[in-house]
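The protein record quoted in full:
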Amino acid sequence: SVLLICCLLMGLVACSSAGGETATTAAKDERLRVGYAREDITPKSPVGMTGYGNETERIFKNVLDYLYITCVAITDKDDNTVIMMSIDLGNMIDSAGNTVREKVSKATGVPRDNITLSCTHSHSVAAYGSISSQVLQAATKAAKAAMEDREYADMYMGQTNTVGLNFVRHYVMDDGSVVGDNFGDPTGKTYVGHTSEADSQMQLLQFKREGKKDVLMVNWQSHPHITGGFSKYDLSADIVGAFRDCIEKSGDYLF
């Protein structure tokens, strides 16, 4: 989340140098250096899909849109670096995520604790277990490319509210019980409300880089399963992928 990112970036805030320069010593640029890279992780052959039912039974037949791992590397004036990766996967267990972080750390020299992973949680993507080697290879390649792509940048933050994109998954029934999955209950109980209100905040970080496209990082509460379903066999990054494509159509941003 953006809160986590902001915590990771404590001490990495863009600033200007104070005082004058001497004739022999140039002022050190104290801004952030930000790099971006993306790698395709779309399976090359039919594999199980995650999100609905048994992964061994729901095998993808078509590619609605491609799946990616996106990586942003941010370095401060003292060469402290954080790497943040977003992956078009449904989820990853801790051990799998730690393996990716260890591989990326070894490939880049960035400490494992400075590397974060976030899954976009589409219900129409390949199960991690079926493309784990592909993800590992893509993650290390993207991280190294993002490190090489770093350029001085200024950071900006913005916030707004979304409409109709968010919901709370836990439904309260008329007997006080909570149903954690579907709207309704086969035992005849009636839906009366949610356990809490949905978080409608959308938060954005924009890195304006010298001579390169701006990098945008966006966070919002989303549960992308628009293109999926038990009977759907098309790979898709869902609304996250559509949002990414829409943002990048202008040609000015990397998302």
